[in-house]
Amino acid sequence: MSEQAASAMQKERQENTVSPTATAAAANTPPRTPITDAERRRHLRIQSTALAVIATGGVLTLMYVAKPVLILALVSVLLAFMLAPIVELCLRLHIPRQVGAFIAVVLLCAAIYGVFRVSYSQASDVLDQLPKYSGKIRNTLNQVRMRAERVRQTTRNVLPEDKTEKNALTVKQSVNWAEELTNGAANATEALAMVAFVPFLVFFMLSWQKHVRAATVMLFSMENRNMAYTTLGLISQMIRGFIVGNVIIGLILGVTSTVAFWILGVPYFYVIGMISGVVSLLPYLGIVLAILPPVVVSMGSLTAQTFVALVSVVVISHVIALNLLYPKIIGSRMQLNPLAVTLSLLFWGWLWGAMGLILAVPLTAAIKIILDHVDSLRPWGNWLGE
Length: 386
Prior knowledge:
This protein has a domain at 66-126 and 197-219.
């Protein structure tokens, strides 16, 4: 046997020889158990839940950061649906869609200008008459101030001042009015610039309506395009029902408020009644804002009985609209249960403020429609439904 063959056999015997330490370590190591299907499914559920939580947090953050853009886009969508019948009428008259969209936007701008013009004229008349009632307003404010001072004095007598706070030196930070005015002007300019995009957005939404809908459907896979087309159609139908229902309720409240204010002798009742009725549609804040216009214009001849009557009219109208008209006219179109509506108002109001309260119901109804057409999310849609 050659030396090379002997060395090779010796090397092989060394490789096959297991040391006692390695044998003991292998004996103490527990055998690996294979992962069962149940554990694998549990791990997948944990991963999917974590991804869903992260995605939800990212979406909420994006919605909060991009609040102005999203609000303007959604308001433009609502305005586009309101003006869609005008475009359809123009199409029946063989007018091109782009021309009909332009006519609809011009009519919208004219209506907004007319409302502001009438409101400004009425407000100027009220401001011109305020000096006549300045003495009465001053006396009322003095009475309120005296009562507040009496309550403060009574509280001071019951709860004496702390000696350490009595000799404390109060430091007040000076206000930089130039900086405040600059910031206010910058914010107002930014808001006006954002609002200026609304007519253009509405015009493009009206003129490119079919293209946008078809392009949106094409974003989905072939087997899901029919579902996407049906979902978009139901959302469009829901938004139209929401707008028509609010218009009907606003007209009913406006007419009834106008008649009631006329009976009570409220100045400019034909304008104040419609403003109060329309403002009353706002969730939560509507009942407070609806009371202000008739009270302000009636300041000169306002008595305790008249004030109680005005408040009663607004509150009764708001309660009837909330408990009778909304469920009958809008509730059937939205197909949302009262708990879901209340929670949506709280959530969107927390996220977007006052505009969130206005857009809460159509947004939640649109989300419900989407949930109803996704098999895995259908139980959530059923929870939001009636």
